[in-house]
Amino acid sequence: QVVLVESGGGLVQAGGSLRLSCAASGSIFNVNDMGWFRQAPGKQRELVATITSGGSTNYAEVAKVRFTISRDNAKNTVYLQMNSLKPEDTAVYYCNADIKYYSGDYLRRDVHWGQGTQVTVSS
């Protein structure tokens, strides 16, 4: 009933930039916190950044200077602008969102995840 679709990943040289997007769609009542996580090969998934519906942000240390998270509440979309990319940023990037949605006659609330988008930074 709710789907998150990411886009914007790809291959970029070190020092380059990418902008990831993640749009939520379906029987949505409202979207609360949204965030980006990443998982590099052989490593655990880690937090990159989160943003509340009011626009308050939180960043992991690796993302504080080079990455910017933002959102468009009217479009139920979250963005991640990544600048000065490094090879160690190579990972699959996942968005997630805390969403209240309609399920039949009921309102439910769950954290949903996107399918992931690959970001590869070459040296």
The helicity comes to: under 10%
- Rg, nearest Å: 15 Å
What structural class do you assign from the helix and strand content?
mainly beta
User: Largest sheet at a glance?
Assistant: 7 strands, mixed
The string of secondary-structure elements, in order, is: EEEEEEEEEEE
Task: Show unreliable segments.
Answer: none
Amino-to-carboxy terminus distance: 41 Å
Number of strands: 11
Integer average pLDDT: 97
β-sheet strand percentage: over 45%
Contiguous helical run count: 0
Large-scale geometry = elongated
Characterise the protein shown here.
- The protein is mainly β and 123 residues long.
- Helices cover 0% and strands 64% of the residues.
- Strands 2, 4, 5, 6, 9, 10 and 11 form a 7-stranded mixed β-sheet that branches. A 4-stranded antiparallel β-sheet has the order 1-3-8-7, with no helix packed on it.
- A hairpin with a 2-residue loop joins strand 9 and strand 10 (106-113).
- The radius of gyration is 15 Å and the shape is elongated.
- The model has no long low-confidence stretch (mean pLDDT 97).
